[in-house]
Each structure stands twice: as C-alpha cells, then as structure tokens.
Amino acid sequence: MEYVLGHGTQNDFVLLPDPDDRLDLTPAAVRALCHRRRGLGADGVLRVAPSSVPGADWFMDYRNGDGSIAEMCGNGVRVFARFLVEAGWAAPGSFAVATRAGLRTVELDHHGDVTVDMGPAVVGAESTAVVPSPAGPAGSVTTFAGVAVDVGNPHLACVTTADLDALDLTAAPGYDAELFPHGVNVEFLAPLDAGLATRLRVHERGSGETCSCGTGTVAGAVAGLRAAGLDAGTVTVTTPGGVLRVGVDPSTTTLTGPAVLVAKGEVELGGIEGGDGPDGELQAFVRLAEHATA
Ligand SMILES: N[C@@H](CCC[C@H](N)C(=O)O)C(=O)O
C-alpha cells in the first residue's frame, strides 16, 4: 500500500492513507513500520481513515512506535492536515480533524506552518519524575518536581533549572503509576525567560525520547506559564527538532509550527504482518517498491 513520510519539528510519522477504512493495523505492523533499521523508521503511524464523527471528514488513527494507541498527537495532526491538503482530500484553509480526543481544528498558512486548536489544557496534581543522575554513583537518581497536564493525552511537565542537555532520557523516567495508570509523557523544560521562551526535552510514552512532541510542548508551555504565575501568553518552545509556538488562554491552547511531507512510496504490509518472531525480534519484511523524495 501507499505510504507517506512526514514530520513536524522532526517528530516523524509514517502516514498510511486508508480512505476505504480497510486496513487492520496490528501493533506488530506498527512496530515494524516504525523500526529505524528494519522498517521505514518513525516515531509513530498516522492512519488516514474516514471519520464517522459529524464535523470532520477524516479521522487521525494515531499509533505510537511501540504499537500502542494514543488519544492525540499535536505534531501528528499538523502533518496529517498537510497530507490531506497535498493529496487534495481537504481544501486549504481551516478544517476539523477527528481524533480520539475529539475534533481538532487545523489551519494552514502561506509560510508552511500549520496551527492546531488543541483545546483547553487541564492542569492536575503536582507529582515527580525520576531520572538517572548524570554524574552520581551508578544507580543514583534525581527527582524533578512536575505537574500533570492533560492535553487529550497525559503529560507530566517539569520546569527545572537543571542542565537539560545532561538529562539521561534513554529510558522512561519514573512516575507515579497511581496518578498516571495509562502511562505518561514526561517533559523537562527551562523556566520561561522574559520573552516567554523556553527549551524542552521530552520522553514520550510509547516512542521514547523524540525530537519534539506537540502535546508535550503545549503541556510544557502551560506548566511554564503556571510556574511564572501566569495563565495566558504566547510561548516559544525550542525542542531538539525545531521551534514551536504555543498560544495559551483560559479557554483554549493553540500549537503552531512546520509540517513537512518528505517522501512517499509503496510498502508491503502483508510481509510486515509476519509480526514478532520467536526470538522477540521483529520480522519486518518491509519491501520498498519506491522511496522517492516527494
Ligand atoms: N508526539 C505526539 C504525541 C504522541 C502520543 C504520545 N506519545 C502518547 O502516548 O500520549 C505529539 O506531537 O503530541
């Protein structure tokens, strides 16, 4: 079947156009597609399916790279919108996309940026994230204070003056499993400066550390404003993959940044659905008939 590769600030996705809603996408197939050596390589998969929800023609069926399902993806929905317009399946301008977290309105501008109305971000309880200490004895950990922020999916956003570059995010940070029974995405960000700018790194549930996370960027912006005693503002967030802008007011949040389609081709999903091998290795028989720069 046809696939398209795209990214938003280097948070990258395999898009699978499925206009007849015929694709039964297994977790093993998602893992194989996302594998960076045996597959196409991506943080997640966006199946482009017809929507059954009034108000939107298309449903973003988002899957994390480990095959798990998530409610929402802020960079993904922006790339999804770019695909719909490039494919001629949506008119340029503003339109709604159905997601598991509800309808999200996207808007494409003339500079290549896509803005999505992410809805209100709901601040929850204060909590902590635990990561290995960069310079301490083996097994020592550092605990970061954070706050739960729901952006349709769960986040724990930690505002910290620690050296972000020194954080070890190779494994998922420890978190309170009672507060986050379905797992959590964890952000670490610097306090906002006078211009409401910050830097952010993220460890995503189901994908590991990524270069950027749209919902995580919104959660981080909300937590950064809160730490500065504010509940509204326009925050500029520099992630390892690029710069995003977040608008926050008490009624909603918006996320703006680039959304790029990189390549398209054909992938044989029948081979991929060979699934996990007996030794736990993925049998990813991804065969590219075409992998051309779009
Ligand atoms: N990268 C995404 C978020 C994807 C889902 C997340 N990993 C989860 O499990 O909730 C974004 O740009 O928001």
TrEMBL record:
Family annotation (Gene3D superfamilies): Diaminopimelate Epimerase, Chain A, domain 1 (3.10.310.10)
Keyword Amino-acid biosynthesis: yes or no?
A: yes
An example of a GO molecular function for this protein is:
diaminopimelate epimerase activity
Which top-level enzyme class is recorded in the Swiss-Prot or TrEMBL entry? isomerase
Pfam families given in the database record? DAP_epimerase
Give the residues annotated as active site.
73, 213
List residue numbers at the site (Could be important to modulate the pK values of the two catalytic cysteine residues): 155, 204
Q: Which UniProt keywords apply?
A: Amino-acid biosynthesis, Cytoplasm, Isomerase, Lysine biosynthesis
Q: What is its EC number?
A: 5.1.1.7
Question: Is Isomerase set as a keyword in this record?
Answer: yes
Cellular compartments annotated: Cytoplasm
Please give the SUPFAM superfamilies that the UniProt record associates with this protein. Diaminopimelate epimerase-like
User: What catalytic activity is recorded?
Assistant: (2S,6S)-2,6-diaminopimelate = meso-2,6-diaminopimelate
User: Pathway, per Swiss-Prot/TrEMBL?
Assistant: Amino-acid biosynthesis; L-lysine biosynthesis via DAP pathway; DL-2,6-diaminopimelate from LL-2,6-diaminopimelate: step 1/1
Residues given in the record as substrate binding sites: 11, 64, 74-75, 153, 185, 204-205, 214-215
| Family statement | Belongs to the diaminopimelate epimerase family.
Name assigned to this protein: Diaminopimelate epimerase
